[in-house]
Amino acid sequence: MAYWVGKKYWGNGYATEAAKAVLEFAFYEKNYNKVFARCFLSNTASGRVIEKSGIKKEGILRQHVKKDNEFIDLVYYGILKNEVSKIKENSNSNV
Question: Backbone dihedral region of 87: left (phi > 0), alpha (psi from -120 to 50 degrees) or beta?
């Protein structure tokens, strides 16, 4: 899963809403078993979007990406189809 939102649209919940829709499509239309997402460790806003979507942190890939001549850690997240069912039961979200 990946997303990019223009600065003037930050904070409106668009990325979280889209992420939940992607999960619903992946699991119920495409019948995927797992969806993963990742973001830079320093990008806490993106991490919040991922976690609000119900995707769980699986680990940190240390110095996994080189950006601007610097090695950066990535946070790796994942969610399984059976976990989405639990999320739907426990909330009023769109997932």
Answer: alpha
- Residue 76's Cβ-side half-sphere holds a number of Cα atoms within 13 Å equal to 9
Written as one string, the DSSP assignment of 3-61 is ----GGGTTSSHHHHHHHHHHHIIIIIS--SEEEEEEETT-HHHHHHHHHTTPEEEEEE
- 33-95 sits in which CATH class? alpha beta
Q: What residues in the chain have per-residue pLDDT under 50?
A: 90
Q: Which residues have a Cβ under 8 Å from the Cβ of 34 and sit 6 or more positions away?
A: 78, 79, 80, 81
